[in-house]
Each structure stands twice: as C-alpha cells, then as structure tokens.
Amino acid sequence: MALPAEQSELPAMEIGFQGETLLIDPRGCLYWPREGMLIVSDLHLEKGSSFAAKRGNFMPPYDTHATLERLALCVTDWQPKTILSLGDSFHDNDASLRLPQSCRLALRQLMEGREWIWVCGNHDPEPPENLGGTFCTEMMLGPLNFLHEPQAQFRYGEIAGHLHPAAKIRRRGKAVRRRCMVGDGRRLIMPAFGAFTGGLNVKDAAFDNLFESTELQSWLLGQNAVYQISGSQLVP
C-alpha cells in the first residue's frame, strides 16, 4: 500500500493544555508543535481479522488499510518527528503477526526517519512483533503524562484513550453525534482513530468522576472542522 502523496487542507483547532499548545486535527489525532509529536489512540489494527479468527465472523479485511491511509495523510500534513500511539494500536496480541505485507510496508514507511512510540493497551499489552519502535506502559514528557487508560486517581496533564469518546448534541430538534476529544483543562481523553471502532457517549457512566463537570469541554470532529461544545450542552 503506497502512502498518499497529496496533502489535506483540513483545519485544526488550537487549544491550551497545562501550559502547552496542542492542535486537534478533525481526523482524530493530536499534534504537539513544541515536540513535533503526532499523537493517536486506539488504532485497533486488524480488528476485522480478529473477529474472523476468534468468532468465525467474517469482516471485510480493509479496516487496517483504511486506518493507515488516514494516518499517512496526517503524517504527510504534520511531518512529525515523533509518533505516539496511545495503546490498543492492535486489536489483540497476535494482530501484528496478521498484518498484510502491504500494511507492514506502509507502517515501516511511516516509521522511517522518525521516532515511534507504542504505549501498551488492554488489547495489546505486549510489544508488536518485528515492527520496531519503542514500547512503554506510559510516558511523561514535560507537564504531560501519556497512557492508554485514564486513571481513577486524578493526575494533572494526563492524556489517555481507551474509552472511544463520542458526544451528542441537539439542535433544532435534531440530534448530532460525533467522535470527540473531551477534557476539563487537566485531563484529556482522545477519540479512537481506527476505522473499525465505535464510540461511547461521554454522558455514559464510564466517564463518571473523570472530569470536573463544571469545566467539561468536548471537541467534536466534523468532516472539515473541529467544534468546541461545552459539557452542559451534551445529551445522553
């Protein structure tokens, strides 16, 4: 699978977080300009083949291709020095072994000339096989702490994934639901980047006690823009 040559013109939204400037890309990634770092979460590569292997449910085998193609566009646009994948990069521990050769080559192209960091997740607690990069359980850099699953004990500067946040609002009698990033100025939870991933409403009980409700903000990912919506405007 060749990496796309064209560049996207999608705008990003700038936010401040723990004294740092971060850019939210509407495709679902986060860019940290000071570090030249592109951050993604929950790629869930080879989820389709996992369903086929473990449950006997055939799924079209294109989810990994679609995810890597979108990631390649983000890399082309941002030209990061480092790519950080915040866990559940693979849908199970054997998924890296099932990667089609075209996807394996595409990943190596993305990794070439830059640092790649895999954070372990609950789906992929072990390093991927024969792909390179650095593997860790969490990473602290400056005021930010990157890990897969948000911790019950609150920590300032935490950026996590795992919950696949989505937000729902109502406008003029119509409901709109989108993947989103959600935070309160002290913690951020990133959306799932993978093409074959669902979303969990941020009003779900799984998000209880993770944020200060009066400070809650969500950033909904539209097709061509990011929309900031306060927590008070969200509905179940």
What is the average of the pLDDT values? 90
SS content category: alpha/beta
Per the CATH scheme, the topology name is Purple Acid Phosphatase, chain A, domain 2
For the record, what CATH class applies?
Alpha Beta
Oligomer: single chain
Report how far the terminal alpha carbons are from each other: 40 Å
Number of strands: 16
Give me the Rg, rounded. Answer: 17 Å
Low-confidence stretches: 1-8
The description of the largest β-sheet is: 9 strands, mixed
Number of helices: 4
Helix content: 10-25%
- Please state the second-level CATH architecture: 4-Layer Sandwich
Helices and strands, in N-to-C order?
EEEEHHEHHEEEEEEEEEEE
Number of domains: 1
Shape descriptor reads globular
Task: Describe the model.
With 236 residues, the chain is of the alpha/beta class. It has a single domain, classed as Purple Acid Phosphatase, chain A, domain 2, CATH 3.60.21. 17% of the residues lie in helices and 31% in strands. It is built from 4 helices and 16 strands. Strands 8, 9, 10, 11, 12, 13, 14, 15 and 16 form a 9-stranded mixed β-sheet that branches. Strand 3 (30-32) and strand 4 (37-40) form a beta hairpin. The N and C termini lie far apart (40 Å).
